[in-house]
Amino acid sequence: MTKFKSRLSTAAIAATALSLAMSSTALAAQNCEMTLHGINVAGAEFGKPGDPYGQGYIYPSEDTIDSLAKDKFNAIRLPFLWERLQPSLNGVFDPAEMARIQATVSDARDNNMVVILDPHNYARYRGQVIGSPDVPVDAFADFWKRLSAVFANDDDIIFGLMNEPHDIEAPEWLTAANAAIAAIRNIGAGNLILVPGTAWTGAHSWEQTFYGPSNASVMTGVVDPQDFFAFEVHQYSDADYSGKADDCSHIDGAVDAIKSFTDWLNANDYQGFLGEFGTSDQIECLRGLKQIVDIIQNDQKAWIGWAYWASGDWWPKNAPMIIQPDLRNGGSAQLRTLQPVLAGNDMTRHACNGEGD
């Protein structure tokens, strides 16, 4: 793919802002620093489809986004449910849900933050996998055609195709991903696209074959007419790499997985984005967290950035990995670990668009 950072204009940014002006020169790639230092802001993916707003799920408040901007996160990854936005396959979007997404985008824009739109559905719609008779690939493409039309060429909006596909083999997932990419580009949207693999898109599982052919061998088949995408992986450090346990027993394995994925990116001339990672506040966990961030920070040819998991309005106090909007409730140690990188962020106008290239 064409390098994300090679599309960044050093004349228009100071170290961390994204740029509308796209350059293909190697010099630009060398001079532009990694830009996406983000955080997942959870809540809109909570509950079940049909749950009332404000009871089953919530979008982030303006105060939450303001707080994260003050911490100098320059991007948010916004999880939400496909079924809430599009209650019927191939149908129109729910206007109230669309308005909530747009209000969150507006709050982020007020803070000069990039927004990564994240249908948090695991390659499913109402429990049925994409590519099954109940959820044809064309329906997934229709969803992205409609969503990309709303935000086409908005230079602070990135399209994350899908959160953590699983129990779908890589060739089938590639077909769905390519259909969605084609729909996005056919509508005229030049936005950056983040493409996950299957097997929960783990960095640790990228080259494994327990689901069939590996992501490493299959996802090189991504077709993007604008060649403006990056691969999204996730990486946790508990025993099964799920992020569900309050431990970092596999922190060394997590660090090694990020190193290995970095090697794969460089060997295949791709770029990556670490869309979810996080750990608890024990010293060995924080040390590993820093190592992961340092690997990404030190290879900005391979990486366009990261988004920590997570923050949001409805997490319980002192949840193990969560950076709370009110740090008295938890997350201060994790934030301190990230601050040396966040401190370099220039919280001015951000842009990210491949239109016309």
What does this structure look like?
By secondary structure, this protein is α/β, with parallel strands linked by helices. It has one domain: Glycosidases (TIM Barrel, Alpha-Beta Barrel), CATH 3.20.20.80. 32% of the residues lie in helices and 15% in strands. The chain is built from 10 helices and 10 strands. The protein has helices at residues 26-31, 62-70, 82-85, 95-110, 137-151, 170-186, 215-218, 251-268, 283-297, 332-342; strands at 36-42, 75-80, 114-119, 124-125, 128-129, 157-160, 193-196, 229-235, 272-277, 303-312. An 8-stranded parallel β-barrel has the order 1-2-3-6-7-8-9-10, surrounded by 4 helices. Strands 4-5 form a two-stranded antiparallel sheet. β1, α2 and β2 (75-80) form a beta-alpha-beta unit. The longest helix is centred in the C-terminal third of the chain and has 18 residues, at 251-268. Belongs to the glycosyl hydrolase 5 (cellulase A) family. Residues 37-311 form the Glycoside hydrolase family domain. One of its GO terms (molecular function) is hydrolase activity, hydrolyzing O-glycosyl compounds. This is Glycoside hydrolase family 5 protein. Residues 1-28 form the signal peptide.
